[in-house]
Specification:
about 170 residues; alpha+beta; Chorismate lyase; 7-stranded antiparallel sheet
């Protein structure tokens, strides 16, 4: 997946959920992992948390026309699951982005970008759910973006990995 074709998706500061809903005729959220676990080192550093900190890890596929188009990996520290965000641990198949962008008090950091190769954990998590047909090969890399959402000193990290079907799935 070339970055130049993905650029409009990568650099858009608005809600990816809203953009997907506008762009595609069908949209769904399919949770794949919702569990408490330890953060990986770069996530802990960006969230200013110790490596041993237990946080809620939520991974979902954003789906259009029964095809995953985005893999989202969110880190919700326990301290962030209080107050206005107390229900975020029980979203089920509801999009996290819709909740985050609905509150005008939520602040978002600048987006950061990364080209994920097959040895990266998030590449492995994202491609695990791609088609298992032997004639379909996994891409040699995937593009991802990451940002942190803040509200009243509580932070949530969201990483969105763009899957190849994003560029080939039918539009509205």
């Amino acid at each position: 997946m070339q970055a130049n074709k993905l650029q409009p998706w990568l650099i858009d500061n608005g809600s990816l959920t809203a953009r997907l809903q506008q762009h595609f005729s069908t949209f769904a959220v399919e949770p794949t992992v919702v569990k408490y676990g330890k953060l990986i080192q770069d996530e802990a550093a960006l969230l200013h948390q110790p490596n041993y900190q237990i946080s809620l890890i939520r991974e979902v596929l954003l789906i259009s026309d029964q095809q995953p188009v985005v893999f989202a990996h969110s880190i919700l520290p326990r301290t962030s699951l209080q107050g206005a965000w107390h229900g975020l641990g029980r979203l089920g198949n509801k999009p996290l982005g819709a909740t985050l962008f609905a509150n005008p008090k939520v602040k978002r950091t600048t987006l950061s970008y990364k080209k994920l190769t097959p040895n990266h954990a998030l590449y492995q998590h994202a491609t695990r759910h791609l088609t298992q047909k032997p004639e379909v090969r996994k891409p040699s890399y995937l593009w991802a973006r990451r940002s942190i959402f803040s509200l009243s000193c509580a932070n949530i990290m969201v990483t969105e990995v763009f899957l190849p079907q994003l560029l080939v799935t039918k539009r509205v």
